[in-house]
Amino acid sequence: MADLKSLALPNPLQTLVIENNEDCGLYLEKILRCYPALLCRGTAASVQEAVSLIDNVKPDLIFLDVELDDGTGFDLLNKLPHQNFEVIFTTAHQNYALQAIKMSALDYLLKPVDREELENAILKAVSKPHNGQNLTKLLQNINAEHNQDRFIGLNETDGTRFVKLGDIIYCKSEGSYTVFQLIDENRITVSSNLKKYDQLLSDSGFFRIHNSYLINLNQINQVTRKDGGFVVMSNKNEIPISRRRKELFLQKLKEKSIL
Amino acid sequence: MKEMQKLALLYIGFISVFMLWGEIGYSQPAQTEETIRPELDSLIRGYYKQAIAAKGRGEKDFIRYADSAVEVAAGANYNSGLAQAHIYRGKLLRLTGNKEEIVNSYRIALALTKKLNNARDMAYLYRLLGYVTFEEYGEYAIADSYYDTAIQIIKTRAVDDSALLGGIYLNKGVNFEKSGLQDSVFAYFFRALDIFEKSKDSLGVVQATNNLASYNHKTGDITTAASQFQKALKYGKNHLNPIQKISISLNLGHLHTRTKNFDRAAQVYERVLTLIPDIKNVDVKASFYHNYGALLSTMKKFNEAVKMLHLARALRKAGGLNEDLTASYYNLGLTYEEWGRPDSQKYYYNRCKLQAKKTKDLNSLYLANTALYKTYQSGGNLSKALEHIQKANKTALESQNLKQIYESYGNLADYYNNSGQYKKAFDYHVLYATRKDSFLDEQSQNTIAELNAQFETERKEREIELLTKENALNDLRIQNQEARMLRKSRQNQLIFVIAALAILSLVIFGVLYRQRFKALYLAKITNNELKALRAQMNPHFIFNALSSVQFYISENQKEKAGFYLSSFSKLTRRILSQSESEKISLADEIETLRLFLELERVRMKGGFDFEVVLDDHIDPDNTEIPSMLIQPLAENAVWHGVSNAKEKGLIEIRFSRNDDQLCVAITDNGTGLPDNSMDKPASHGLKITEGRIARFNKSAGKKSQLTFTTLNPGLRVSFSIPFQELF
Q1: CB within 10 Å: which end of chain B, N or C, has fewer?
Q2: What CATH number is associated with residue A128?
Q3: Gap between the Cα atoms of B614 and B663, Å rounded
Q4: Chain A CB contacts of B569 below 8 Å
């Protein structure tokens, strides 16, 4: 990996730090001075301050705290008509917001910030075309009323492809790859393991029914007890139920039908 | 000095037990005939009676009569009289509490009875010694061995004295009450009851029944207790003196009151009322009036209640029963309060306060002050109310009664809240909350300590019992050896084999019993305490890590501090989320372990290497493992293993699969176990892990422990748990 500390760009990235914890903001600002590729142009602690700062500076990169004084980082993004800048989110804890950020395949840093992770994030921001599409999807996800209306960003070789959760029938593990089976009979293969998507989607109507399968509970046509039990999905595919997961699965189904 | 005496007593106690077995088992005691000398016997008894009379007159040196009896018997060279005189002297000394002298007298008497070869008196004296040891020294184990010696003599020498034997069983039961061993208490009381019933000893039956009832009462089985008290009263109808009848009735009445059978309680007390005229004992009489009054008060018969309470008060005042008088005043105050007579209420609570001050009875003083606070509060006299609640608080702090301390802070908070001084109310409320917490904390600590103590005593008890049985068998063997002189050896060999088998089975029984008890005990504590113990493990680690960060900062090693801090946060995040689930995937556990070891490596001077090795047959993503199970073992390998390694430290954590078992081995190249410790190390975290492993294996019907293998150099800690897949 290129040493970021000696990487100089002809036009350094105009950078803003929007952070409601003052110490944390100052720390980031100080650290960023080590990297000539970035030029830190200011800090803000609230949505209001940030809006005018962004208006003035026209930044290329923003470090954005999820929790701000008078709202959230998402509120801020909602207020901006054009998001032609990169965003690296920062947050202190793992919560719903982080799930949403991960789903939109955006970069984030957990506080306190790890130098290596910071450098990785900056490198990506420097080398990647700007991620406006991801931000748009993030905002859609945050504002979506039904979880099946949310989008998940799948990183393919030629960029991020967004898929609506309601369009996924199941995900299948293929070693360290994951295959997404969609309702339009298309398949998408991504180079992340199934565990990652299990963690990401288990709150959005998906269930790990088997070591190799994560299914969309909304796409089940039938549950059979035959042959140790399997489910028939909307595309007629049969997926086995792991013995150890059966009880939990039936319980999940029950909860869902109540909802 | 006191400790020395105690030690000396211990020493004497064990020696004598040993000598006794010696006498019974090995040698024929010297037979000494002595003519009974009735005139001297009656003279000695006369001195005893004189001493009691002198004590009744309040003479301080009433012991001199006992000394005279000893002189007379010694002068006449009359051993059995001298022994009796010493027994009397010991009994009289019990009234003075001079424990060394009591033991002295009993020991001399014991030596004399041994010389006279009087088995019954020997047993009797061992019982007395046991009783003194129990009552005056509180040495339950020693007392118990004295009792056992006495029982031994009675059985081996065929002493025909069921009253004595039954009495000893009662003593043993009472002894076990102190160590909290319920089963043993009941067992001995029932054994005593059995003996008394067989020998038709009504008084004994009453005594045993009464003891059983009291103990049932104490352990909360109120119904059984009540029926047993009733039985005791029935059997004792013609044997008990009125005072004994009354004290049993008072217990019975109290039980009925507790179970809210007020009418039955009243019946019991009414029957006592007919006995009262014959009673001269002020104490008993007053207690009866007091209890009856309290009952009537609960039944809202205030008129009669007050009458009874006043009778008790008057008797106690006249009889100089100052401590009890305080309670009388308090109950009067309480009764008037419920009756709605504020003036009398105030008056008697105040008397109670003064009396409590006089007798320096802090508990009553607190109760009185609190009662007065409530009295003045509801009477609208706020300044007086404040004054008393402050006094109550002061008293509670002085006596260090934790419950009263938090209670009184709570009352203070209430008071200030009611009077609108919210800042003060808040401050006191904070004090209340923290004190209450620490009180509850202490309580749960005590429960744990109690459970521990119970386990230990039960174990000791078993051991003592085993020893006794073993000794009995030894004696049997020795007798058999003698028989061998007469008969041929073959039969004896058989007996020897039987004896050996019996000993062996006893030992096995003991071991099994102990294990079963330990399992029960563990199950008991795991449920409640496992969570608490686990929570304790994390802070320890957290603060160590923070200290390291502090050190790097002070050394100006900014990079290291930053790295350490962010790795630490990562680990903490993992631990927090994993501690929510009982089980996690092996992959997650390994990742956490890596992070943990990575951090420890930075912290240790010279560093160390580590390696996690995984069997090919294991898919870490689909293998389940209890969360945070291995971390304490890894920590141990770091701080007790590689930190002392001669070469560069190396830790290997290996997971392998053996059929349905997941085997885990943590190996380090440190110095191994210290030479002097034959046992495994006993760190807090290790104990927790060991307990959890045992629990997981128990639920799968398996047994597995931590196994410690010393290597050259190093140590391997291994264990196995049931292999379980996630999906």
Answers
A1: N
A2: 3.40.50.2300
A3: 10
A4: 110-112
- Give the pLDDT confidence score for residue A190 in this predicted structure: 93
Amino acid at B172: K
Number of domains making up chain A = 2
Both tokens of B706, joined, read 């931590």
d(CA B719, CA B372): 63
Domain boundary among A107, A141, A175: A141
Q: Which of A211, A214, A215, A248 to mutate to test the interface with B (most CBs of B within 10 A)?
A: A211
pLDDT digits (tens, 9 = 90+) for B408-459: 998 998 888 888 887 888 888 888 877 877 777 766 666 666 656 655 666 6
Of B573, B577, B727, the CB nearest to A210: B727
Query: Is A173 found in the same domain as A120?
Result: no
B10 at the A interface (CB within 8 A)?
A: no
Task: Tell me, yes or no, whether A156 lies in a domain.
Answer: no
A128 located within any domain: yes
Of A112, A208, A244, the CB nearest to B566: A112
Residues A26 and A120 in one domain: yes
Contacts B622 to A, Cβ<8 Å? 211
Do A24 and A126 reside in the same domain of the chain?
A: yes
ipTM value: 0.71
Domain residue ranges in chain B:
541-725
At B346-369, the pLDDT tens digits run 999 999 999 999 888 888 999 999
pTM, two decimal places: 0.44
List residues bridging with A44 in a β-sheet: A18
- Token pair 């808040």: residue: B426
Identify the CA nearest to A212 among candidates A181, A246, A242. Answer: A242
Could you confirm whether domain B541-725 is CATH 3.40.190.290?
A: no
Domain of A252, in residue numbers: 163-258
Check whether residue A214 and residue A167 sit in a common domain: yes
In eight-state DSSP terms, residue A145 is S
- Angle, vertex CA B152, rays to CA B150 and CA B154, nearest 5: 70
